[in-house]
Design goal:
Layout lengths: L4 H4 L5 H15 L7 H8 L4 H17 L6 H12 L4 H11 L13 H22 L6 H4 L15 H12 L5 H7 L20 H7 L4 H14 L8 H11 L1 H21 L2
Helix pairs in contact: 2-3, 4-7, 9-14, 12-14, 13-14
Length: about 270
């Protein structure tokens, strides 16, 4: 997909990102409506724009160091002398964007500098989206750094990974999510599987619903062994610890608990 991007890579091609994000969703096991902000945040992949621009910078450095008797170098010098709606114009637009004066370094441009500056701006934009998108109400409580998450390296079966990622992204089909489809007010999206009269959100599903007490007791036993003050932590702190530090056990809890919820739903019909 990046073939020859050293030549055509300046433009921001939305279709490349769509293919990129579709592949990530397939791996994570989530549907096409899963928030892209969470998808790219958990995988930590660099954007297609960054990859393409880095490819262009590498080719620029190669041309700068090329012998003057080479045909490619002669064409490059001619193209660079024009700088009007051509490749040299686009590469200089990149230099201006990242605020680099290549003349200071004899025409050479540090690839890592460009990559870091472009990604830094993108990460700021990602952080703003995390903090403003309503669907990411739970995600923002434990996800603060743009990076690939360790759970991606775990050998989960596809079902377990899918349930866990849906929980992280706030799209697991529990009442807080499905009630949105019916136009219910948030306070009316109560859990019907226990008598606690609480909204069935991710925290209730993970920490409080009595339907899953048997699974939760086993999970909390492990948590208490790993963290001495686990029981006295707030719900948000418990959520953050379980999701970030005990993702393997938590993923299995979520998978088992949600399958139990599904079986209860089918039995009640």
């Amino acid at each position: 997909m990046d073939y020859c991007s050293a030549i055509w890579g300046y433009s921001n091609l939305i279709k490349c990102d769509k293919i990129h994000n579709r592949a990530l969703r397939f791996f994570l096991g989530v549907h096409r409506f899963a928030p892209t902000t969470a998808v790219v945040g958990d995988t930590g992949w660099i954007s297609s724009k960054t990859r393409h621009w880095v490819s262009m910078i590498r080719y620029w450095n190669r041309l700068i160091n090329m012998d003057h008797d080479r045909l490619c170098k002669r064409i490059f010098l001619w193209d660079n002398s024009l700088r009007l709606n051509n490749w040299s114009y686009e590469i200089n637009e990149i230099f201006d964007y990242v605020d680099i004066d290549v003349l200071e370094y004899g025409g050479y441009c540090n690839v890592d500098t460009v990559k870091d500056k472009v990604e830094a701006e993108r990460i700021i934009d990602w952080s703003n989206k995390v903090n403003t998108q309503p669907k990411l109400r739970t995600y923002r409580s434990f996800k603060r750094v743009y990076k690939g998450e360790n759970y991606l390296l775990c050998n989960f079966d596809r079902s377990t990974r899918s349930f866990y990622v849906q929980f992280r992204f706030g799209i697991l089909p529990i009442r807080i999510e499905t009630g949105r489809y019916r136009g219910e007010a948030v306070q009316d999206r109560k859990c019907v599987y226990c008598n606690k009269n609480s909204v069935e959100d991710e925290i209730h599903f993970l920490l409080h619903c009595s339907l899953y007490d048997d699974y939760r007791n086993a999970l909390f036993d492990i948590a208490n062994r790993k963290c001495q003050n686990f029981d006295v932590r707030s719900d948000i702190q418990k959520l953050e610890f379980l999701v970030n530090e005990m993702f393997s056990s938590t993923a299995r809890y979520i998978s088992r608990a949600y399958k139990k919820r599904q079986s209860m739903t089918y039995e009640s019909r």
